[in-house]
Structure formats: C-alpha cells, structure tokens
Design a protein that fits this description.
The complex is a heterodimer of chains A (358) and B (556). Chain A is mainly alpha-helical and 358 residues long. Chain A contains 14 helices and two strands. Chain B contains 19 helices and 22 strands. In chain B, α14 runs parallel beside α15. Chain B is globular. Classes of the chains: A mainly alpha (358), B alpha/beta (556). At the A-B interface, α8 and α9 of A face α10, α11 and β18 of B.
Chain lengths: 358, 556
C-alpha cells in the first residue's frame, strides 16, 4: 500500500465546508485523547468547555469580552496573511498600542474631556501597533529578512519594553511599588454594560472594522493587489504592483488594528499598563488560529473569534470544575490550528491509498 | 582504481531504436546512436529536439518505451542513475548538482560508500588529487562550492564523475555557463580525457562548438535523427539544414502595409542575467508601426532578459530603450505598461495569470488600476466582469464561466485570455514571448492570426520565438540573437531557414556576401575554425532599415 497524492483541480463550496468541519472534528478528537490520558472523560470535558462559555449569562458575557480583541487582531492578520505576509507579532503590536495609549491617557487624560481623549488614545494605539508592524515589513522588503522570525522576535522586545516601563519610569505613584502604571483618569475609561466587562463601543468597533476589512480585501484595488501578491509574487511583478507600498500599508493596517485591540484591553478592562502577560492573554497568538478558521475573511473572523473566545472562557471553567491545568486551552488551540492547516492540504490535493502491484 | 565498480570499461555503446513518449508527445522516435571509446560525439539539435531526453534515458532518469541499450555488445538494463553509474556512465547536467555549503572534496566523495567512517577526507584526498592531476584540472579541494565560478564548478562535476569511474561522460550544454576562456579549458580537458580512452557525449545547439571539439555528430530534430556524420566530412551549412529542417509550410495573409514610424527603439542595451553575467551585450533593434519583428534564437541567448528589460521587469546596465521616443529604460513596469505596451509573457502560468484568482479577476491584471475597472481605490467588479465576458467571447476563450479559478482553464485558453487582455487595449507595442509554445495547432494558429491583426491595425509587434516556421510565416523581419546581440536581420521572404539557422548557431551567414567578399568566404570553408567576419562588411545585410550588430567574436 502506498499513498498517492495528486493535485486537486477544483473544489466545491460543499467540499470546503466538509473539510473545515472535518478538521475541527479531528482536532477535537485529538484533544479528547489528551483529556483521556489525564483521566478525564473527553466528552464531558468538551461539554464542560462549551457549557462554561455559552451556557450561562456570565459565560456569554465573558466570551464576548474576549472575542473583541480576537476579532480585531484576527481581521488584521487575515489581511496580512492574504498577502502571505506571516505576521506572528500581533501580540507585540497589541502591546505597543497599549503603551502609546497609556502615554496619551496619562499625559493628556486629566486635561481633556472623554469624547476627545478616548479617540486620541485609539489613534495613538493604532500608530503604536502600526509602527511596530512596519518594522518587519521594511526588514523583509529591503533586506529580505524572514518576517516570521522578525515578527516573532519583536514580541520579546516589546514585552521587555513594557516590563521596563512598568517597573521603571512609568511605575505608578499610587501603586505601592507594584509594577503598574497609575490608573487612567475616569474620562479615559470606556463605559461598560452593567455587571459585565463588555464595552458596547468596542464591540461595535470590532464588528465594523472586520466588515470594513472584508470590503477592503474583496472590493478595493488595494485588496486586489494584496491578493495578487499573496497568490503569485511573479504575476504581481509582471502586473507592476508596488510591493513596498502595498506590504507597508498592509502591515500598517494589520499592526495598527492589533494596537487598537491593545487600547481596548487597556481602557475597558485593565485601566493601567502592567506586565505584558496581564495586558494580553496571548490574544496575538490565538488570533492566528482565529484568522485561519475564518478562512482569512474578516467577516468570518467575527464568528471564529467568538468560537475561540468561547474555548478560552470554557477552558478557564474546566480548570476549576475538572482540575485540569491552565495550559489545557493552549493544547486545545494548538491542536485545532494544526488540523485546520493540515485540512487545507486536502483542498488542493487528492490523497489516495493505492495497492501496489509489483 | 576503485572497488565499487565491477563492470569492465566501455569499449562500445549503442542505443537501438529508442522511443520515448510523454503522454501523446513523442520525445524520441526510433533513435539509433553508436559510440566507441575515445569518441567525442556531438548531439546537435534545437531546444525541444529530444537531446536531453535521449541522454536522460541513457543515464537512467527516464525509461524508454521501446528500444535497447547495448554496452560492448550486451544488452543492459538501466533503471536508475545507480545502474548507469555501475555501468560507468556519468552525466553532468546543465544545472550542477553540488552542495553549495560543502567543500569540493566533500562534494566529490558524496555518495561514495567505500569512504571510511573515520577520517573520510584523508582517505579520499589522494585519489581525487591524482585524478585532477591526470587531467590537468586545477581546483582547490578545500574551497566551498559557492566560492567557485561556474567553470570551476563544472570541473568539480567532471572530477566527481571520473571519481565514480565514469567511462562515458554525458555533458548537457556544458558551455552555456562558461566564459570563452573557460570553454577553451573545458575543451582541452575533454581532449585529454578522450586520449585516455574516455568517451564523451556533448549535447549542444552551437555549431561552432560541435565542429571545434567533436569528431562525430548526430543531429536530432523533433525527436528523430535527421543526420549523422564525421565532423571532418561536413560543412556547417549541412548541419544547420539537418537541425532546422527545410521549407515553410504555410504563410498567413497580411495586409500590404509599409512599416510606419518606429515605435520601439533599443540601442546598445546591456543587461545582466540572474547570475550577474552579461545577458545582452549591446543589443540594438527597432520595431515600427504595422510591423512584426521576430526575434529568433536558441533560448538562453539573452532574449528573455532583453524582453524583461524592455518591460521594466529587469534593470539595464547601460543603453537606451525608447517607446514613442520616450526613454523607458529602468522605468517602473506600470509606467511602461501605461505608455501602451502589451506583454504576453513567456511563462504564462507563472507570470501571465494568478491561478487561484478567478478568471474575471485575471482579465484586468495589470490594467486593474485604470478606469473603468477601478476608480478612487475601489474596484468596479461589474465593469471587470463585463470586460471578462467580452474577452471570453471576443477571443474564443472557452470557460464554463468567468467565475472559475484561472488555473482550471487549459493552456490554450489561458493564452487566449492573456492575449485578449493584452491586445484589447490596443497597445502601440505588443511583445509576445513564445506565445504558441505548448499550444495545440488550433490555438497556435489563432494566436498568430491575432498578432497579425494587431500589426494590420497599426500596432508594432515584437515576437520572440524559437519556432522558425512560425517566425517565417508571421514576421515582416527577423532579427537573430546570439549571445546577447543581434547577429543579423533578415527578410523572411528572401532568406532561407538555413541562413537563419546558421545565425542562430553563431555563424554569420555569408551566402550572399560570399560572392562579394572572398575574405568572409575563407572563414566558413575553413572547417573546425569559427567563421571570421570582417567587421567592415558587417552592415551590408539585406535589410538596412534595422540597426545591425555583427559579431566578430572568435571562439577559437
């Protein structure tokens, strides 16, 4: 028996859906094996996860809260990945967004009204994330440095910058030596729905930005050029598309939106800058999977963002109810990403088992 | 010398009735080939004539459908390069198979199973040094491959083959990467190998080379042997005829138009190839309104780089390219395209379309930034689809709908789509690179008619092709490129294919000039020596309207 692989010419919408569902299912089975090894009934575990996230008012509210940064970052990543620019650095772009916004909020916040300071913080956050995102773009186009490496490594740099700021120059005077900045003034804090951590403004912003990005990808010249570059750099050169400009703008948007997610976390939830692990619970990495599950279409990313937010919230729940370690969620996410990417292989190839006649 | 090879030396090798098909395409048909120890056999033919296929069969990379290989009178079965190595056959490919980061010595010993586990270099070194000395090959064994020039890398390949006890060495276009001096050195090596009883098969399309180094020559055309001779007994013209074939079968009706204003003017253009070596060396020609200029030449003589430089895809070192009198060298692709240049690229699947995007999205590639397809950054996909529909119906593209991925179309339909896209905006200059390569007869015919249509409606067309019949049937003038220059420009209604074939092989055709100039005549009769063209006579070719570069290059 040998495995024979041939290129697949055509895929139907039905087949694509089947592969997507099949990959998710296979991923769940693999995760189930991990649960079983830990002595936990896998069905119960998966059930507990989804009951934890979607089964109660509290769960749903938390899921929406965590979906917001995932949708924002995932949409931006979808754009970059369309150009086959593998931005693994959304985590640091988020942090830089939070840093810029903190500076604006603490410096000007006390002197400006809320309707002005909050937009200013979002603009500053966008700029912070965008600047951080364009560094690897320039490195790649001008010097041919692999963006996976540079974006990944810049995550560490950004994390160290944040740590330095919160234990050093920005350490809060009211924080008794703890590594936090002072809290933002009241007018720089986003209003939340009662008894939740949901900021309605932020939810609307995330959904609107996701839809705008969908429009950009599929309806604008810029989106067309991004897709041509991603699918065939050779054809893009032939067509006279400016790589530098296009990839630079791509990363300004992708990094900038991650920065906005950072502002959201800061202004709606934490109210001050603290250790990087506190500011972002790995949203920049989880959003990679979100973008893939959303088929690099920001409109679908809204759904996949909710799905993964649910897994995060449900994962927290089973930590308590089933006594599983905190990294279970990472295992869960990792398996799903591997199976999702592997599933894509089936979209372009036919795999057959062939009996060898020697 | 070595213990791994048990077979005795190759005294005589024969390939009998070889036939090889790829699907429905016949690559080799009933090919006979014989060679004896000490021979240097030239395998001559155009690109796609089946030379490399035949040699890949001998080396065990392909399996023939019919026919057999005999060594010293016994039938042998060559199923893989492992078998051919055991039988003392070695092959050096056009692209070297060396590990860049390893040293010369390590590369030579690669795959040698007799090398001991400990101190392998110490065991290998003396043998390699002895081999290199025998042949007078000078290579530093401790240098890394990436530090070597192409010529030195080739020497490593030769030593590697001999280290593996090759008796018969197959070399695929060995001089294509070499400088003239390196070529000279290679030939010296080959001669000394032949004196040592080694046998060499040299794949080439260069007549000069074959005449200079080979004692026998076999000519292939479209997969079949069209001639076989001792080089001492034939003239270059005979070989050229065997290689190219004879008459033109068809011609196309063209409007009776005089060429108008020059549209594209290329003068003294110098462009480097991907390896940084000169690809064009002072290329000059021009294309006028109502004219199709053909560029003939064996691929790899600078045609690709020249086209890329004109289109803005490759920077030029010096020289000038003007479109409508406007300097366009080293301008951006989009700028040049917007000035009215249509380009049907050579590798249509890679450059011409984006396979995973829809047909309608491909229909505006390169024009997508122009009205009416996009306005204020927004794409108007209704206009784009209308345009795609128009192309599909106007240029006979058969596709289920415009909403299918472009890669699902057949090669012919992809080419019609590209052609339609490039022609529909009525560019003042259309460049088509190998536009009918790999197409079926019907699609090829259609493409040619469209090129003529463009000419008849006032456009200038530059057609780069290796298909001489096509060039003769379609073009108003044919410029022949060899080693980055125009060897001569001919009028297809007056010239013969044989003349063009000689120019393609680097020999300036003297047939008309011979009557006028005995100096030039002497050059071609003197066999084994390259023809020597008097530079003073260089601008007296049939068509004076073109800038003519003549080659006075001497290979020997």
């Amino acid at each position: 028996m040998t495995i024979r692989v041939t290129p697949r010419e055509e895929t139907t919408q039905g087949f694509r859906t089947l592969v997507l569902v099949g990959s998710l299912f296979a991923g769940l089975i693999a995760v189930g094996i991990v649960f079983a090894v830990r002595g936990v009934n896998p069905l119960l575990a998966v059930w507990s996860i989804f009951r934890g996230s979607f089964g109660s008012a509290y769960g749903i509210k938390e899921t929406i809260t965590k979906a917001v940064p995932l949708i924002l970052i995932g949409s931006g990543l979808a754009l970059a990945y369309r150009a086959k620019f593998w931005n693994i650095g959304a985590e640091s772009q988020l942090l830089l967004g939070a840093v810029f916004a903190t500076w604006v909020g603490l410096t000007w916040g006390p002197h400006l009204p809320g309707w002005l300071i909050i937009p200013l913080m979002f603009i500053a956050g966008f700029i912070g994330g965008a600047l951080w995102g364009t560094i690897p773009a320039i490195l790649k186009i001008r010097f041919g440095i692999n963006e996976v490496i540079s974006t990944l490594m810049l995550n560490y740099v950004a994390a160290e910058i944040v740590k330095y700021l919160v234990v050093g120059p920005w350490k809060g005077e009211t924080k008794f030596g703890y590594p936090y900045t002072d809290d933002l003034p009241d007018q720089a804090i986003l209003r939340l729905l009662p008894l939740s951590r949901i900021s309605p403004a932020l939810v609307v912003l995330a959904v609107v930005l996701a839809l705008v990005l969908t429009y950009i990808i599929f309806r604008t010249r810029f989106g067309y050029e991004i897709r041509v570059i991603g699918e065939s750099p050779e054809a893009a050169r032939y067509a006279g598309i400016d790589f530098f400009k296009t990839l630079l703008i791509t990363m300004v948007i992708s990094g900038g939106i991650a920065g906005i997610a950072g502002v959201g976390e800061l202004s709606a939830i934490h109210h001050n800058l603290s250790y990087p692990e506190t500011i972002s619970a790995g949203y920049g990495f989880t959003a990679i999977i979100v973008a893939w599950l959303g088929k690099l279409n920001p409109a679908f990313v809204i759904l996949s963002g909710l799905f993964f937010a649910g897994i995060i919230v449900g994962g927290d729940a089973i930590q308590m109810t089933l006594g599983l370690p905190a990294v279970t969620v990472s295992v869960f996410n990792g398996f799903l990403l591997v199976f999702l990417i592997a599933g894509d292989y089936l979209l372009y190839h036919r795999v057959k088992l062939v009996r060898e006649h020697a | 010398m070595d213990t791994s090879t048990t077979e005795r030396r190759i005294e005589h090798l024969e390939m009998r009735g070889i036939e090889k098909r790829f699907g429905t395409v016949v690559a080799n048909r009933d090919v006979h080939l014989e060679i004896s120890a000490g021979d240097i056999l030239g395998l001559l033919g155009e690109n796609g004539a089946g030379k490399t296929t035949l040699m890949n069969i001998l080396y065990g990379l392909y399996r023939q459908e019919e026919g057999s290989v005999l060594i010293n009178g016994e039938v042998v079965d060559i199923r893989s390069p492992k078998d051919s190595r055991r039988l003392r056959i070695g092959m050096i490919h056009q692209h070297f198979m060396l590990v860049d980061q390893h040293t010369v010595l390590e590369n030579i010993a690669l795959g040698d199973e007799t090398v001991p586990f400990f101190f392998p270099r110490r065991a290998v070194r003396p043998r390699v040094e002895a081999l290199a000395e025998d042949l007078g090959l000078d290579v530093d064994l401790d240098k890394k491959i990436y530090e070597l020039s192409a010529g030195e890398q080739q020497r490593v390949e030769i030593i590697k083959a001999l280290y593996r006890n090759a008796d018969l060495l197959i070399m695929d276009e060995p001089t294509s990467v070499l400088t003239p001096q390196e070529t000279e050195q290679l030939f010296a090596t080959l001669r000394s190998m032949s004196e040592n009883g080694h046998t060499v098969i040299l794949i080439s399309h260069k007549l000069e080379e074959i005449m200079a180094i080979c004692n026998r020559v076999i000519v292939l055309r479209k997969g079949e042997v069209t001639g076989e001779a001792n080089t001492a007994d034939v003239q270059k013209t005979d070989l050229a005829r065997m290689m190219i074939g004879r008459s033109i079968s068809s011609s196309y009706p063209k409007a009776d138009l005089e060429p108008g204003e020059p549209i594209l003017r290329v003068s003294d253009l110098h462009v480097l190839d991907d390896r940084g070596l000169p690809a064009t060396r002072g290329l000059s020609f021009e294309v006028c309104e109502n004219e199709i200029l053909g560029i003939a030449g064996v691929s790899g003589n600078g045609q690709r780089e020249a086209v890329q430089a004109i289109c803005g895809l490759r920077s030029s070192e010096s020289g000038s390219v003007t479109l409508h009198g406007e300097e366009i060298s080293n301008e951006a692709v989009r700028t040049i395209s917007d000035l009215g240049l249509g380009h049907v690229p050579e590798d249509r699947m890679v450059h011409g379309i984006v396979g995973n995007l829809f047909l309608f999205e491909n229909a505006v590639l390169k024009k997508h930034h122009q009205a009416p397809y996009s306005a204020h950054m927004r794409m108007d996909y209704r206009e784009v689809r209308d345009h795609a529909d128009a192309l599909v119906s106007g240029y006979q593209v058969s596709a289920p709908s415009v909403s299918v991925p472009a890669k699902n179309l057949s090669g012919g339909n992809i080419q019609k789509l590209i052609l339609g896209r490039e022609i529909s905006s009525a560019p003042s200059l259309l460049i088509a690179s190998h536009p009918t390569y790999g197409l079926d007869v019907g699609a090829a015919e259609y493409v040619r008619l469209q090129l003529i249509e463009r000419r008849d409606s006032g456009g200038a067309v530059l057609l780069v092709s290796e298909d001489l019949e096509e060039l003769f049937a379609v073009c108003d003038r044919i410029a022949v490129m060899f080693e980055g220059k125009v060897m001569g420009v001919v009028d297809p209604s007056l010239a013969t294919m044989e003349e063009v074939g000689l120019l393609m092989a680097g020999v300036v055709n003297e047939s008309e000039r011979a009557e006028r100039s005995s100096v030039a005549d002497a050059g071609i009769v003197d066999e084994g020596e390259p023809s020597f063209v008097a530079a003073a006579d260089g601008n007296a070719l049939p068509d004076d309207s073109a800038t003519i570069a003549t080659s006075a290059e001497v290979a020997e």
